[in-house]
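Trying the structure run again after the queue cleared.
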Amino acid sequence: MEHHNIEPVFDERSRILILGSFPSVRSREQKFFYGHPQNRFWKMLAMALNTDEPKSIEEKKKLLLDNGIALWDVIASCEITGSADNTISDVTPNDISRILKHSPIEKILCNGSTSHSLYQKHLCPLIHRQAVRMPSTSPANAAWSLERLVEAWKPEIRERGQ
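Done. Tokens:
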């Protein structure tokens, strides 16, 4: 059984919650989200927000919070082989209510179909809020170029009027 070891990133200004499924092996080692260099999450986010790609954990947290974005994962613990989402079983979901209580979340975005299906199964029945399934930023989603990812994510994460 693997356990989530990364605290959520959010504050009282977070209006968008992005949920992944479960941290990769590399992310669990680094103790921060999307730590694998091949994952395009940070590059996509920086491009969509028209800013420099963050490198350090502190820069990544600042980018999220400065843009009203909260970040966490659907799963608190599970059985998983390596980092493969298709091997996930015995899921215990994270309690996202603490984010929803302290942040004015307007929109929940799931990074990929696994995150979305797990959200629909484990969290939606508890919190009664729909989530939008976004294309995964994982390198396993090779059908989506970085440019296509930016096009899809940009309208969902930009502030109104930006």
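The radius of gyration is 15 Å. Worth checking whether this holds up in the mutant runs.
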